[in-house]
């Protein structure tokens, strides 16, 4: 079963203590070792491109394998039923970006988590969100929750003969 980590940077592995904070990166390494998950970057840093992200991984000796970047949702256009009023909104956009990446790339069965310090996600993604305290970064408690989500065994299906 494939396992994915949607990784935000600021507030998760970048903290007030510094860029790619040592404790947060060490906790990410522990999570990767315990889950065998692949990383997809959902941070705005992804907008610099995959080559830039790979350079960061090499320069800072960051753990794990980055296999992709979520797409960028620039705006969402809404209109009321009669088309009289139109407006734009971005609430839940990060969730839409993750949903689109999964739709285009994930093969069933899979598990995923979202490591982020914000809650701008779809309702259906709440059980996958590990909300990190932005002032601390990824900590051991976050890692325990993430491992539990990624490694929980499926409820076996009963087959009737």
What features would you describe in this structure?
The chain is α/β, with parallel strands linked by helices and 161 residues long. It has four helices and seven strands, in the order E-H-E-H-E-E-E-H-E-E-H. Helix 1 runs parallel beside helix 4. The two termini are 26 Å apart.
Keywords:
single chain, 161 residues, alpha/beta, five-stranded parallel beta sheet, two-stranded antiparallel ribbon, 4 helices, disordered C terminus
In total, how many beta strands?
Answer: 7
Rg value: 17 Å
Secondary-structure class: alpha/beta
Helix fraction bin: 25-40%
Largest sheet: 5 strands, parallel
Topology, please?
Elements (H helix, E strand, L loop, with lengths): L1 E6 L14 H14 L2 E4 L8 H10 L6 E4 L6 E4 L6 E4 L3 H13 L4 E7 L12 E3 L8 H12 L10
Parallel strand pairs: 1-2, 1-6, 2-3, 6-7
Antiparallel strand pairs: 4-5
